[in-house]
Design a protein that fits this description.
This protein is α/β, with parallel strands linked by helices. It folds into two domains: 208 residues, Rossmann fold; 57 residues, Uncharacterised CRISPR-associated protein family, UPF0236 (Arc Repressor Mutant, subunit A, Orthogonal Bundle). 47% of the residues lie in helices and 16% in strands. It contains 13 helices and ten strands. The strands form two sheets. Strands 1, 2, 3, 4, 5, 6 and 7 form a seven-stranded mixed sheet that branches. Helix 7 links the parallel strand 2 and strand 3. The longest helix has 21 residues. The protein is globular and about 70 Å long.
Length: 281
């Protein structure tokens, strides 16, 4: 059987769960820096700077890692989905590589680093030789720059899925954690690039949901027009070019492929990322 590559979106559920079960000494010692709320603080919060300093060896990091090692599936959404997938698919021996994608915040990166240390340890139960890559901090993701963050995430996922599929791997996307809009787009990009499946833990019944991906693409007539438009073009020129192609500027804007600003028409960043990687033919 082909080996698997897993692309895992990371959120802060580990911090939320750890807050409920952390040792009392840590709870008391770090109460003043708001440790019980770290899973829910905004990107610009001053506490993010403090969290940035917490690395391997710090008692909070080690406490979180001990917690994850003691109950991996219960500790966070990412591992719950990952291990449930492996159990469900009987796929433990097929895992080859794991990539972790974190939002552009210190709190999320802390969770990603702890998960990384767990996965590369014997506690994970994975076979020796599985490559667990250093967590990837996705620029602008989750910090208020929605389209920029989406473009960064799409670009990273598109490049990785395309590359690994060309190398002959099966690629699965763990979309349980993180923000819902980004998870939706991660599913879309996975379908566009013919990843093998997306999985997550359902919010209501808490069971694994595995989604084989149906063929999905943007119609060729739209792709041809988008390539002709380039990335910036005056609105009137765009309208005329699209009219020649038998298309409407308003329709492409409604589809989320284009946006209008300052009298010019712009191809959206996530679409640009797909075009530049020749995902859309």
């Amino acid at each position: 059987m082909k080996e698997h590559v897993h692309l895992v979106l990371v959120g802060t559920s580990l911090l939320r769960n750890f807050a409920l079960e952390m040792p009392q000494k840590l709870r008391d010692k770090y109460r003043d820096v708001g440790i019980l709320q770290w899973h829910n603080i905004p990107p610009g919060d001053e506490r993010q700077k403090y969290i940035e300093s917490i690395t391997r060896g710090h008692e909070i990091f080690e406490g979180m890692l001990e917690y994850v090692n003691s109950k991996p599936k219960e500790s966070c959404a990412e591992l719950n989905a990952f291990y449930s997938f492996l159990d469900h698919r009987i796929a433990w021996k097929n895992v080859s590589e794991i990539y972790l994608y974190a939002t552009d915040t210190a709190s999320c990166m802390l969770c990603a680093r702890v998960i990384y240390e767990h996965l590369r340890s014997e506690k994970s139960g994975l076979r020796p030789g599985v490559k667990v890559q250093e967590p990837i901090r996705v620029r602008h993701w989750g910090v208020g720059y929605f389209e920029e963050g989406l473009k960064s995430l799409m670009d990273l996922l598109a490049g990785m899925i395309k590359s690994k599929k060309e190398q002959g791997y099966r690629v699965f996307v763990n979309a349980t954690a993180g923000f819902k809009p980004e998870a939706v787009f991660a599913t879309i990009i996975s379908a566009l690039l013919k990843a093998d499946g997306v999985y997550y833990i359902h919010e209501a019944h808490r069971n694994l949901v595995y989604m084989p991906l149906l063929p999905l693409t943007i119609e060729r007539k739209y792709v041809r027009a988008l390539r002709k438009l380039g990335y910036w073009i005056p609105k009137k020129a765009a309208e005329e070019l699209l009219r020649i192609e038998g298309l409407s500027l308003m329709d492409l804007e409604d589809m989320g492929l284009l946006e209008e600003k300052d009298g010019k028409v712009k191809v959206r960043k996530w679409v640009k990322a797909l075009l530049s990687r020749k995902v859309l033919a």
